[in-house]
Design a protein that fits this description.
The chain has 184 residues and is of the alpha/beta class. Helix content is 40%, strand content 10%. The structure holds NADP nicotinamide-adenine-dinucleotide phosphate.
Amino acid sequence: METKTALVTGSTSGIGLGVATSLAQKGYHVIMCGSRSKEDALEAITQVKSSALHSVHYVQADLKTEAGMVSLCKEADSICPGGVDILVNNAGMQHVTPVEDCSLAKWNEIVAINLTAPFYLISHFVPRMKQKDEAKKRLFCDSQPTGKPVQVSQIADLVLFLCSPGADSMTGTSLVMDGGTIAK
Ligand SMILES: NC(=O)c1ccc[n+]([C@@H]2O[C@H](COP(=O)([O-])OP(=O)(O)OC[C@H]3O[C@@H](n4cnc5c(N)ncnc54)[C@H](OP(=O)(O)O)[C@@H]3O)[C@@H](O)[C@H]2O)c1
């Protein structure tokens, strides 16, 4: 079977690092991304590479900026000329504050990383995914709150499932994995 390539944004820490590690372990080529330098990302890169079956690349890109988004797309295309098979738009930030205390600059930063970057990356990569007939969007729901935090390994397992043939009929939908918090 052809080895697929996954681009995981925000894979220098937390959830993205867990997802990148799982995908590498399962035999995907992995392109990691973060805004920190390669030197500062070394520990994360080493973690992903340590159990990887195929290639692991790192691209430094500040996804709050247009230059960063363009540069990530360019580098990912150079690593994987046919276009990546899987895009995990994980990079993001949270800023919890009363609305009156949130500056316009902070708002713009949040929108840039959490919304604009995923939009840009999807618009860049999805056309070629469609040609491969592999674009997927999913939805899951649970109405009983667990009261427990979601584990990185659970998200990684979900991503692995979404990348598998078993998920081929799940499309045009969104997924929530929050222990039932929203449903409550
Ligand atoms: N953890 C939670 O409970 C939770 C709940 C709901 C949603 N989320 C969302 O899930 C995602 C991951 O959360 P997490 O807890 O794993 O966060 P995290 O540990 O803070 O990781 C965030 C990742 O995003 C990258 N990133 C941040 N700003 C960036 C930028 N300007 N350009 C490129 N990369 C950037 C960081 O890389 P660098 O440091 O190298 O820039 C890092 O790899 C986020 O989008 C978060 O909002 C998390």
